[in-house]
Design goal:
By secondary structure, the chain is of the alpha/beta class. The chain has one domain: 60s Ribosomal Protein L30, Chain: A. It has four helices and ten strands; from the N terminus they run ββββββααβαβββα. A hairpin with a 6-residue loop joins strand 9 and strand 10. It starts with a strand and ends in a 14-residue tail after the last helix.
Length: 195
């Protein structure tokens, strides 16, 4: 992980894939950079060091409340699903060996002091989840009172973090709150045949 002011050349001249809340992307393309902006959300960057394939997720909340979990099922907006999805995709695209995984985690900021510290809950969740599953975190930038942009090179595992100013942070808070309040859409089923 590198915390710097100037973007290293490795992150220039590349194809950038933006990873939004609930997303998970995996790649082995040397030209690809995975990018996300985090406030209280957390993002994991997982890489198979032998296969040189890696991915990034972005989750909004550690867990679903009981009623929404029953209504909508698993969702990548929530930590456990997002972490399992990312790890499984990297294992499938890589060597399949958990011992070859390198894991880095970012985000979990408390960028709106008038709200519950969701970032701290997300940070606690991701640490506990990985420990329970037998993984070690090799690098992290969690907590703090700021939003951050994370750039990840899945091939090399290199990460670039940029801490964002408070005005940008407040914009991130508004976006996170809007998405958190949005109810997951349930597609209508119209092809049921009763007999």
């Amino acid at each position: 992980m590198q915390l710097a002011r100037k973007l290293p050349d490795e992150f220039n001249r590349v194809d950038v894939i933006n990873v939004h809340q609930g997303d998970c992307h995996v790649s082995s393309d040397p030209e690809v950079t995975l990018s996300t902006v985090l406030g209280s959300c957390v993002s994991a960057c997982v890489r198979d060091i032998m296969a040189r394939v890696g991915g990034m997720n972005h989750f909004l909340l550690a867990e679903q409340s009981g009623s929404s979990a029953e209504r909508f099922g698993a969702s990548a907006r929530y930590g456990a699903f997002a972490m399992e999805e990312l790890i499984n995709k990297v294992l499938s695209a890589g060597t399949g060996s958990k011992h070859n995984l390198e894991i880095k985690v970012f985000g979990g900021g408390n960028i709106n002091s008038s709200l519950t510290d969701v970032g701290a809950e997300n940070s606690k969740f991701v640490r506990n989840f990985l420990q329970r599953e037998g993984y070690q975190i090799v690098s992290e930038d969690l907590g703090g009172g700021y939003a951050r942009r994370v750039l990840f090179k899945p091939l090399s595992g290199r990460v670039f973090i940029k801490r964002l100013d408070s005005m940008t942070g407040q914009s991130v808070v508004r976006e996170e709150l809007a998405i958190a309040r949005r109810k997951p859409e349930v597609a209508p089923v119209d092809d049921i045949e009763l007999f």
